[in-house]
Amino acid sequence: MAHHVLDMPATEAEIRALRIGDTVTLRRWLFGIRDATLIHMFDRGRQTRLDLDGHAVIHTAPNVHRVPVSNEAPVGFAPFCIGTTTSMRMERFTDALMEREGVRLIVGKGGMGPATLDAFARRGGAYLAIVGGAAALETTWIETIVDVDLDDLHPESLWQFAIRDFGPLLVGMDSHGGSLFADVQRDVAARRDAVIASLENAR
């Protein structure tokens, strides 16, 4: 297991070097995205002016404050509480997000499924996991909201954050078919089957 520091955007080679169980700290840029953003981008054909190529997205609908435009708030928003939402319901968008927009990393909570794992293997991607309930800590890693697009979907807009040492995050899924979430599911299923068998034998 290794720790990686990635100055975003990252190359395919850098992402393929990640393995489940490794940790990652992200620097420079991170993009916030959520259900409505993805639905409008891929089901309704909307385009974004933001360049996601080689970047990481985080599944979030951030709690932000409107503030006067300044050097510290160039688009009039300040981060208040930027937490992470459950990723699995956005499974069907992973391949399109990687193919059309060039996204390399997904940061989220709870893991994703086989379609995402397949997209990671083919295109060179990885999933970085955050423990639920860490929103207050995550927010300290975000310095500035530097841009926002699709803002009619607020708060499920497409956000660009300037970040400072965002992490460490756990590599939960990699481009080599590894998934800590699938491993846990297999382990739970095996234990469940063993318990059921022992109960049947005890009758």
TrEMBL record:
Keywords: Lyase
Superkingdom of origin: Bacteria
Domain Fe-S hydro-lyase tartrate dehydratase beta-type catalytic: 6-183
Catalysed reactions listed for this entry: (2R,3R)-tartrate = oxaloacetate + H2O
EC number(s) reported in the record: 4.2.1.32
InterPro entries assigned to the protein according to its UniProt record, in alphabetical order: Fe-S_hydro-lyase_TtdB-typ_cat, Fe-S_hydroAse_TtdB_cat_sf
EC top class named in words: lyase
SUPFAM superfamilies associated with the record: FumA C-terminal domain-like
Record carries keyword Protein biosynthesis: no
Gene3D superfamilies noted in UniProt: Fe-S hydro-lyase, tartrate dehydratase beta-type, catalytic domain
Family membership: Belongs to the class-I fumarase family.
Oligomeric form and interacting partners: Heterotetramer of two alpha and two beta subunits.
Protein's recorded name: L(+)-tartrate dehydratase subunit beta
UniProt source species: Methylobacterium oryzae
